[in-house]
């Protein structure tokens, strides 16, 4: 299939590369010409403008946005809506607020344009590992673009299906889900990221306790090798995960994480998750505490926040303010 891709940052460029590897054709655009030049050398068609990108796509067109949430995505949707024709599809693979998706879908529907919100998880590793996709929108539009989603998704790999799943949607076992109507994809991704905050905070606090076990003044100080602890936990323990893998890698490189300050940013999804919990009157103590810990990290850093920063850099290439 053919897909337009707008936004060639950490994930957008690799989405184009992964699709190319699976035999799909991409036309890419970014306001910064640098990433496009690199992709062009690899065989991806690169446009100099949105208008050129649309002109090089065959109808019915599909354009995937991989842009920061908020104004950049809003502007791109508006600009594309003026260029596309009835029957074309806009996909937002960024981290937009799900209620914005509902509004956009309604507005674009008035122009007979399709809209899909695609929660995308995979970070800088998605090129090799694939992207977990959570999709909201009309079933017919999702079905038409299934070859794109299947190529981007990780595939079943060696992971056995969960017992009792017979008769359920087989796409899920390949790593992509049609979650429901417009907004459902980004809603599921929002909660995914809220949970991510909580998991990361649990690891961070645990390793902070381990680090301080050797502090002077304790009755029985313990000098522990945190890199070795992380490594042994990776192998058969009940808390093994990709986040633990990234923590182990960071600690093996530098047990003190000296290059990190512990200044931990937060993105919209964590805040939106807590706001949604309040709206639904659902208790979310752990996730709320994890978000507040990030707020506090900007005033007072601990080793726990260095662990958080190391994990964020590991999975998403996120860097602390002021670092190259």
List keywords for this structure.
324 residues, alpha/beta, eight-stranded mixed sheet
Number of helices: 14
**How many β strands by DSSP?**
8
Low-pLDDT segments? none
Between the first and last Cα atoms, what is the distance in angstroms?
37 Å
Proportion of helical residues: 40-55%
Which structural category do the helix and sheet elements fall into?
alpha/beta
What is the element string, with H for helices and E for strands?
Answer: EHEHEHEHEHEHEHHEHHHHHH
- Beta-strand content: 5-15%
Approximate shape: globular
Largest sheet: 8 strands, mixed
Side-by-side strand order of the widest sheet: 3-2-1-4-5-6-7-8
Radius of gyration from the alpha-carbon trace, in angstroms: 21 Å
List the helices and strands and how they pair.
Layout: E1 2-6, H1 12-21, E2 25-29, H2 33-40, E3 45-46, H3 50-55, E4 62-65, H4 71-83, E5 89-92, H5 98-109, E6 114-121, H6 126-129, E7 132-136, H7 139-144, H8 146-152, E8 176-180, H9 184-212, H10 226-233, H11 242-253, H12 268-280, H13 285-297, H14 303-316
Parallel strand pairs: 1-2, 1-4, 2-3, 4-5, 5-6, 7-8
Antiparallel strand pairs: 6-7
Helix pairs in contact: 9-12, 9-13, 9-14, 10-11, 11-14
Give your account of this protein's structure.
By secondary structure, this protein is α/β, with parallel strands linked by helices. Helices cover 48% and strands 12% of the residues. It has 14 helices and 8 strands. The protein has an 8-stranded mixed beta sheet with strand order 3-2-1-4-5-6-7-8, with helices on both faces. β5 (89-92), α5 (98-109) and β6 (114-121) form a beta-alpha-beta unit. α10 (226-233) packs antiparallel against α11 (242-253). The chain is globular. It starts with a strand and ends in an 8-residue tail after the last helix. The model has no long low-confidence stretch (mean pLDDT 95).
């Amino acid at each position: 299939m053919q897909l337009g891709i707008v936004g060639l940052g950490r994930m957008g460029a690799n989405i184009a590369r992964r699709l190319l590897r699976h035999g799909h054709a991409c036309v890419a655009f970014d306001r910064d010409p640098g990433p496009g030049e690199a992709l062009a050398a690899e065989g991806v068609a690169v446009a100099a403008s949105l208008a050129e990108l649309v002109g090089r796509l065959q109808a019915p067109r599909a354009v995937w946005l991989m842009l920061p949430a908020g104004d950049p995505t809003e502007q791109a949707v508006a600009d594309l809506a003026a260029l596309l024709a009835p029957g074309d599809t806009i996909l937002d693979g960024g981290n937009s607020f799900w209620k914005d998706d509902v509004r956009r879908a309604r507005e674009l529907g008035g122009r007979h344009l399709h809209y899909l919100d695609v929660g995308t998880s995979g970070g800088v590793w998605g090129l090799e590992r694939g992207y977990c996709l959570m999709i909201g929108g009309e079933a017919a539009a999702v079905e038409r673009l299934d070859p794109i989603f299947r190529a981007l998704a990780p595939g079943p790999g060696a992971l056995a299906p969960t017992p009792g799943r017979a008769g359920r949607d087989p796409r899920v076992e390949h790593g992509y889900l049609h979650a429901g109507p417009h907004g459902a994809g980004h809603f599921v991704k929002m909660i995914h990221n809220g949970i991510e905050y909580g998991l990361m905070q649990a690891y961070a606090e645990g390793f902070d306790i381990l680090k301080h076990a050797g502090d002077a003044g304790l009755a029985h100080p313990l000098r522990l090798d945190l890199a070795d602890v992380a490594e042994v936990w990776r192998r058969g323990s009940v808390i093994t995960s990709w986040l633990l893998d990234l923590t182990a890698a960071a600690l093996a490189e530098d047990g003190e994480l000296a290059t990190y300050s512990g200044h931990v940013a937060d993105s919209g999804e964590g805040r939106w998750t807590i706001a949604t919990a309040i709206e639904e009157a659902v208790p979310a103590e752990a996730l709320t505490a994890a978000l507040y810990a990030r707020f506090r990290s900007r005033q007072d850093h601990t080793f726990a926040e260095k662990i958080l920063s190391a994990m964020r850099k590991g999975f998403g290439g996120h860097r602390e303010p002021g670092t190259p």
